[in-house]
């Protein structure tokens, strides 16, 4: 990866869009609980969606293709977590106030300006993930900025929107979805393109992630947060990368997209160097079915046997080597073209001269194709698509358009992130306004009452929280910083509150952030220990039933038997503290055993006595108690001697 | 800033830059607001497509922006389908309200209905391969504003159309709220149609991708090609897009305020099941008016297309005073359809008023508010008293159908004949045999 300076030189600019599920009691537009369901009763139904047209007859292109392919959506409606609203069988209810208040509260923490009146919009999405064919979304605050490690990052918009349905399994023309997730409130935070390196993306994402967590009002766990990226480099184009779920993948996706744009610009240079002109790329498909009709290639054979199956090729003069040009690891310019062919023509893929002979297509066949196209195998290249004629033609047309776009550099696209951080073409970027008003919901004025409730929900910034932990709860700066950034922070808050100060913050924080981790490192599985058990352990400590030193021991026992009662475990393992009388008896015995030394050293024998006592009493009595009793008994003993 | 200048700049259609007192600088297009919205705000469409409301009081300054153009919102205009038009069955679409198809102005959010046949075929190209379509807009009303006079208009036009071209099927698009009533009205007024008459509507408006209108239109068209020569309603059969049902016009009822499959045959079975994906139609009953056995010339007889607006549909409720009936008679109502309780009962306190009404020439009929099952005035003494008072029990005829039928009967015939007509099964409004399976299985929490 390149150094910070190199990214600046490259003119990298990144905007981040964070989508986070909110922890409301109900969904955004109905009274269903916010929960995902495994098993249980469900109703199943199938639907299709049809693209809507604009005044000018335009339709959303992705929507149109989905419909043309005759996609059928199979919806699974869990009875526990969906109702007529998710099934699109009832108009939406009023916008969930709680979600609006949480979002506005978060907005306030980012110095964003609430709008005066919220309008719910419909954003066309026809991949079946919304039963309505659109996602409902509302802009609640505009502008603002955050300060991440000394750098100011602008905030553009804060929206509240409904989450989409969960993807189920696909088969042939049927895509299936589960409706429990549909309608869960999301907050969408869009930053300005102020981020200038992959590392900064991580920092900003994690800062915002922490802020969201500090509200205590967001859902946690896999799939509850998703990031989209808008990435451009100087001379490139703003490309949208969708669906990054893991924080770790963010910098990688950014770096790889910057690389892709850089390579596309280099590709353009190479085209110029070779003296190729945009106008040279023309759509002149040649039928080469005859050449390939007895090909041994399985793909060719299968596709030619389809009704109306044809092999069509176009010549690309002076393009030798250009299609094998790598844009991202394992993704060549040819791969990009294949994505276009798939999207626009619904074919499975394409062949190009840089990868042939191969895939069962022989050298002889390749030569014949070049001959039929009137091309020079040394200098020229070709694209070959074998499929039903209409599909093959549509695909080739799209491929030609994409190649022509290469002369302009980077096309404006929406891309989907792949597990390794590379990305593939998903669709051309939708116009900003595939949005129209949700007429079923009247506008909601942002009243003083709403703003006051929002203010109460406004989270502290991570910096403010850290300061609070240090100054008010007395945590060390190290522990405070760790805690703010930790997944355990909410658990800490709850435990601290429930113990009403009977256990100091440092003890709780150390348990969660230090002891638990080292116990885990020792090989104990601490995951199954519930928060309730942790509370019990700390409560035993606060009641003086166990010593602080016994806490880690008890946790280890709990790791082995997470269902057991901590008090019972402590009892069986002899971890319960002794009564003062029991401790005093032991102290007296130790004094007797050490009479000789005490006579020698007098008061100074205390540290030795302490050591001997603690050896026996560690985990069974508080050190402070032992120390006090030694003081008392020692002075008694010395008095008697006098 | 002068208030009138401010108001001027804030008129819908202007591109403006707005400075708010809360510190925002916003650019966008001022949109028209619905009348019911709070007039203290304006609606602004921002560049990113979102609408927001701004309190007029919160605006400190406005600048007019020039050169803002109407941007293309979605980049793709699909090619016209050149699918071959099947010359064969002809279907005429008669629009009465609601929209089967529409276009959205993404900028303003305005929805324009598509009314021209060509445009409709453009948007629902599947229709081209079903039949040869023509269309007209007869009226454009919310279905709650339908009334007997409008039933007459529709009946007249349908009658004319069938006279002109007896073999052309007719699709009537209609708002769903009172669609069942109009279906019943046509069932009586066009008693012997020479082609299928199919009513349809949509429960999800056509301005959304999940609208059921195209599905219903396709299903209705398929049915109109092969269905019997009588009036039917074709709508979703279940919540999904697997099949539609054709219901007899006199037995159908809207049973849900919002579901796609709201229309169901009550105490009855539908005429047919239609599967638009495969084009398959399964006919479910034999007692239909098959088109090939229909005498097309019969349409030329004197039509009975009138409807009386002096009929009242009265739902009895515990505590209902008899005065209500006295009042109706006084106001000149000629027919009253009572939705009684259970087997067809009303309180004994009302019976006197009913007797008076009948004596003054008002036709009083009885249906059941249970919807399922029949009226029977022989079982309990109240029923026998009602019979004695002159009430006509209407068996298992649906209350709404009974209301429409009485309106038609008194619109076209004298009192005596109307009484007889009410008892005759003219258009399948009486279901002769009520089977165990006609009653729906409700949800009982079974797993």
From TrEMBL, chain B:
All residue ranges annotated as the GatD N-terminal domain in the record: 11-63
Catalytic activity, reaction form: L-glutamyl-tRNA(Gln) + L-glutamine + ATP + H2O = L-glutaminyl-tRNA(Gln) + L-glutamate + ADP + phosphate + H(+)
Positions annotated as active site in the UniProt record: 99, 176, 177, 254
Residue intervals of the Asparaginase/glutaminase C-terminal domain: 310-415
Pfam families, sorted: Asparaginase, Asparaginase_C, GatD_N
EC number of this enzyme: 6.3.5.-
Alphabetical keyword list: ATP-binding, Ligase, Nucleotide-binding, Protein biosynthesis
Gene Ontology terms describing biological process: amino acid metabolic process; regulation of translational fidelity; translation
Keyword NAD attached: no
Family listed: Belongs to the asparaginase 1 family. GatD subfamily.
Described function: Allows the formation of correctly charged Gln-tRNA(Gln) through the transamidation of misacylated Glu-tRNA(Gln) in organisms which lack glutaminyl-tRNA synthetase. The reaction takes place in the presence of glutamine and ATP through an activated gamma-phospho-Glu-tRNA(Gln). The GatDE system is specific for glutamate and does not act on aspartate.
Protein name as it appears in the record: Glutamyl-tRNA(Gln) amidotransferase subunit D
Taxonomic source organism: Fervidicoccus fontis
